Amino acid sequence: MQNTCTTVWNNSLQTIKANIPNQSYRTWFEPISALKLEGNVLTVQVPSLFFYEWLEEHYVGLLRKTVKQQLGEEGRLEYNIIVDKSSNSGSPYTTKMPSNGNAAASNPQSPAVPSAAAGKDIRNPFVIPGAKRMNVDPQLNSNYTLENYVEGDCNRLARSAGFAVAAKPGATSFNPLMIYGAVGLGKTHLAQAIGNEIKRTHPEKLVIFVSCEKFCQQFVESLKNNTINDFVNFYQAMDVIIMDDVHNFAGKEKTQDIFFHIFNHLHQSGKQIIITSDKAPKDLSGLEERLLSRFKWGLSADLQIPDLETRIAILKKKMYADGIDLPSEVVEYVAHNIDNNIRELEGAMVSLLAQSTLNKKDIDLPLAKSMLKNFIKNTSKEVSMDFIQKLVCEYFEVPVNLVNSPTRKREVVQARQISMYLSKSMTKSSLKSIGAYHGGRDHSTVIYACQTVNDLMGTDKKFKGYVNDIQKKLQMN
Length: 477
Ligand code: ADP
Ligand code: MG
Description:
Layout: H1 2-19, H2 22-29, E1 33-38, E2 41-46, H3 49-58, H4 60-71, E3 76-83, E4 93-98, H5 100-106, H6 156-167, E5 177-180, H7 187-201, E6 207-211, H8 212-225, H9 228-236, E7 240-244, H10 253-268, E8 272-277, H11 289-295, E9 299-302, H12 308-321, H13 328-337, H14 342-359, H15 365-379, H16 385-396, H17 400-403, H18 410-426, H19 431-437, H20 443-459, H21 461-476
Parallel strand pairs: 2-3, 5-8, 5-9, 6-7, 7-8
Antiparallel strand pairs: 1-2, 3-4
Helix pairs in contact: 1-4, 6-7, 8-9, 12-13, 12-14, 13-15, 14-15, 16-18, 18-20, 19-20, 20-21
The structure holds adenosine-5'-diphosphate and magnesium ion (MG).
């Protein structure tokens, strides 16, 4: 009997091997062993529930076809899954699952109900023994705390949600907590601070901070080394996972898939998930819908550009922490002129200090002004109307000369109006000169264009996306 079951499985493996990439075969099929064949039911053993889910999700069609090839139309596949019971004596037990693909036709039994526990003698090479007792380095930077995260209108919701989550990780409705906002506005700081606070108040909790990029690298690495189960087990054992910059998942389908499974596992077990992103879930592109919909389950809180008072308070706090003393007027000057990115704000202060040390001069306002001239010019560089027009036309694939001509064709009018709107918002040009630049139109046409674009941005999401997109491109250049 044993022989037949091994032969059937080995034959099946040959078909499978011929149909999928070698790497996938090694990862998902080599660790499987055939256990028994009873009638037309072949039972195989897989190393974990995760493995089972993955196989059923990604390979059910192939498995069904292969098993039927080997055992005829009535052929069925069942899995024995080794379940990690590391909290007990350590010896894993197995549980049985039918394959969805085969069960669907002849066996309506739900795959979600494990039906047996046996097989104590089977060793699971993937189980991390006593995962809960692991000593995990949470990868947190102790400089980021909630205390030194200055509160302002720009971050009130996110910050207070952070406090709530830190007090009761996994037990609030803020799960996942998604913090989003543009670069340099404090996402990483806040996410790290929540992690530090949890570690301070709940030292027994396993917390891990990981950037999305690092997670993707680890995943690829684990595929290469055939340690995918260790990788998944590690993250599934956490009480709190903090993933930074999830927009970097864009286009990485397999890693998203893995994260989806880990997310589900943690969420179902009441574990806390905290993620950061540069966009709101609805605006994230390149991410699978099912993952995005998970991100919307809890609370999405945005970080806005801080107002002047908050920027000053942030600078003062940093200075205090570093034992630096700058005249108020210098702090105000810096905070006033660098207004869209806190990282740049801090960078300006640091370069000011460095320069003053080098030149052995006290920092006063005239010195700050002359030193920061280049810095400020770089950060708020004005774009030219010429460039705006060129980029808008490129974006909509409309010739520039048409935009400046009398034509009323719909797509040309749209490009012209957006170009006028951006010229108004991104340059210091007068309405009159903007009109003149766009084919000799008068200032009331420019006002009308700005109003139209404004209105449309409020009502038409797609249109707003275009304008934001172009604006971003302009700022990057
Ligand atoms: P992001 O991850 O959004 O790009 P960071 O979290 O790296 O931004 O923040 C950039 C810098 O600004 C960090 O040094 C951070 O400490 C500081 N920062 C941002 N927001 C605040 C705040 N509310 N209070 C104090 N420092 C802040
Ligand atoms: Mg960051």
